[in-house]
């Protein structure tokens, strides 16, 4: 018994599947990671304490150097950032960094972890505890992006 299959109608199928796979790698993963990072970022910003009035921050070497920093209310909140990290990402793994700018807010670690004289007021740790919510948001955004890609195929 012999038979033959006409594959001419499948011309371009491999390219279409490859293009769809590339779109998923390039667009879906980054959208999901961005949505996850946004949940953590927004929560960290909402958790950070904001002082009522300006105050001074004395660094580790301030006794020796005399350097002190005048911290305006909201400085730490404004210094929190969320940024894509291309150097640590791959086509299938996307990484966002969420932290605070240590130059703009050198007192961030002391607020987060406390000192021998001041209690901790964590803002990053509680945000990271919302990872389940972040994953849910990321999954929802990836599903929406997949639907969008399927619609344009």
Helix and strand topology:
Layout: H1 13-47, E1 55-58, H2 62-65, E2 68-71, H3 75-79, E3 80-84, E4 96-100, H4 108-113, H5 124-128, H6 131-152
Antiparallel strand pairs: 1-2, 3-4
Helix pairs in contact: 1-6
Q: How many helices? A: 6
Largest sheet: 2 strands, antiparallel
Could you say which overall geometry the principal axes of the C-alpha atoms support? elongated
Distance between the termini: 39 Å
Rg for CA atoms: 24 Å
Question: How many domain modules?
Answer: 1
| Protein structure class | mainly alpha
Helix content: 40-55%
Indicate the mean pLDDT: 87
Spans of at least 5 consecutive residues with low confidence: none
The overall strand count is 4
Name the strands of the widest sheet in spatial order.
1-2
Question: Would you kindly provide a brief summary of this structure?
Answer:
By secondary structure, the chain is mainly alpha-helical.
Describe the structure.
By secondary structure, the protein is mostly helical. It has one domain (16-152). Helix content is 50%, strand content 12%. The chain has six helices and four strands. The chain has helices spanning 13-47, 62-65, 75-79, 108-113, 124-128, 131-152; strands spanning 55-58, 68-71, 80-84, 96-100. It is elongated, with a radius of gyration of 24 Å.
């Amino acid at each position: 018994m012999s038979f033959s299959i006409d594959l001419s109608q499948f011309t371009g199928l491999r390219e279409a599947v490859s293009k769809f796979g590339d779109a998923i790698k390039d667009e879906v993963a980054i959208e999901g990671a961005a949505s996850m990072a946004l949940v953590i970022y927004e929560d960290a910003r909402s958790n950070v304490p904001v002082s009522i009035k300006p105050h001074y921050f004395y660094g580790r070497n301030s006794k020796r150097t005399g350097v002190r920093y005048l911290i305006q209310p909201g400085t730490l909140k404004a210094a929190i950032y969320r940024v894509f990290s291309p150097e640590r990402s791959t086509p299938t793994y996307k990484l966002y960094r969420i932290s605070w700018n240590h130059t703009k807010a050198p007192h961030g670690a002391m607020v987060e972890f406390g000192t021998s004289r001041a209690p901790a007021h964590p803002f990053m740790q509680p945000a990271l505890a919302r990872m389940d919510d972040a994953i849910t948001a990321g999954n929802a955004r990836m599903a929406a992006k997949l639907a969008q890609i399927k619609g344009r195929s």
